[in-house]
Specification:
The chain is of the alpha/beta class. The protein has 8 helices and 17 strands. It is globular, with a radius of gyration of 22 Å.
């Protein structure tokens, strides 16, 4: 049978990475756990769960009988992820920190550290799969459609995938919970983490306020009427419905055909004029895009796929949308069969060929399905 490779598992304190470590040990691997600390600006705040997560990770390591090391990547995170995150927000775009965090921290800083301490492979609790075919490594969707995380991993390259295992990618989340309870893991019922990668769940506008200067300005409707004031364009994203503070204008809009109960959505951000444009109704034409252009491209195979028909996601938890891929200067263009809702600059457009994630890029601009 041969010796199983030594695997370093990123133990986050959550149930997915804990079950990943267990499964690898069951398969005969020598398993070591590493807890990554990547944020320390407000360790003592109610929103930073790092200390609690480490206690959970250490408890898991104790139950499984494996070593655990606490490693601080906070400087790397601040330089390579958080600084870019702030730059994008300041420019009026909406970045996806989880995508950058995976590429720069979990599969770069963590991978490099694991190799230095003698690992042959690393593993995480992501719901995705790796398949080797003819000497090439493919990133596949996780088998649990509701938990698939390949979208966040689309910037991984061949070298990274060749060293990576995703043990829970073959399982449904309910099965992972069942295994955790069965073997008595202390975090079997711990709720899944949400919020910003490694920063946690916190009031987002209040958090950004500490790092980004805000410049209030007008909120306008499609007729050009000023119907409110925004707190700074950085704090809003396309398709946003909550926190606009203009609910009281609905009836006035109804008298002009706006629909009495139709909610308001952010539809455009005019950086030059510091104006936030909002529309009423989820399916307003300003919220629908027929094509997009993406740059800052990363392809898993190391080269772009051939132009043609594929599926794409422009946001996590979205069904693959049928589209046609074409090359564009420094990036690519996607033309969609059906208009897509709230395609947002700064987010990732990720391409799929069935269950295979091909890679993607950062959305630079979207073209409205019905031009103004």
């Amino acid at each position: 049978m041969g010796r199983k490779p030594r695997v370093v598992v990123g133990l986050s304190g959550g149930v997915d990475s804990a079950v990943s470590a267990y499964l690898l040990k069951q398969q005969g691997h020598e398993v070591v756990g590493i807890f990554m600390k990547n944020w320390e600006d407000d360790d003592d705040s109610e929103y930073c769960s790092s200390n609690e997560d480490f206690v959970d990770a250490a408890s898991v390591a104790d139950v499984l009988g494996i070593e655990i090391e606490h490693v601080n990547f906070a400087a790397d995170y601040k330089d390579r992820v958080f600084a870019e995150f702030l730059r994008e927000y300041q420019a009026g775009r909406t970045p996806n920190p989880d995508v950058l965090c995976n590429a720069e921290i979990k599969f770069k800083s963590f991978l490099d550290h694991a190799m230095r301490v003698g690992a042959e492979k690393i593993a995480t609790g992501h719901y995705a799969r790796v398949r080797e075919r003819a000497g090439r490594f493919e990133l596949l969707k996780g088998l649990d459609d509701g938990k698939d995380q390949s979208y966040f991993l689309h910037r991984l390259n061949q070298a990274q995938l060749s060293k990576t295992l995703f043990p829970v990618g073959e399982l449904r989340k309910s099965e992972v919970r069942r295994i955790a309870e069965e073997i008595g893991l202390p975090n079997a019922k711990k709720k899944d983490s949400t919020g910003i990668c490694f920063i946690g769940e916190r009031p987002f506008r209040e958090f950004l306020n500490r790092y980004i200067s805000k410049e209030p300005g007008p909120i306008k409707d499609p007729r050009g009427r000023v119907i409110g004031r925004h707190q700074g364009l950085s704090f809003y994203t396309l398709g946003q419905r909550q926190g606009l503070g203009i609910g009281g204008v609905k009836e006035k809009g109804a008298q002009r055909g706006g629909g009495e109960h139709a909610p308001w959505f952010v539809a455009r951000k005019d950086i030059a004029k510091n104006t936030l444009w909002v529309v009423q109704g989820h399916d307003h034409p300003w919220l629908l895009s027929s094509e997009l252009v993406a740059d800052d491209v990363s392809w898993i195979a190391g080269e772009a796929p051939a132009p043609g028909s594929y599926g794409a996601k422009t946001r996590y938890r979205q069904a693959d949308a049928a589209c046609t891929l074409a090359q564009a200067d420094g990036g690519f263009r996607l033309d969609f069969e059906e208009p897509q809702w709230a395609v947002t600059p700064g987010q990732s457009a990720v391409l799929y060929d069935g269950e295979v994630c091909l890679g993607g890029g950062v959305i630079a601009r979207a073209v409205e399905a019905v031009p103004a």
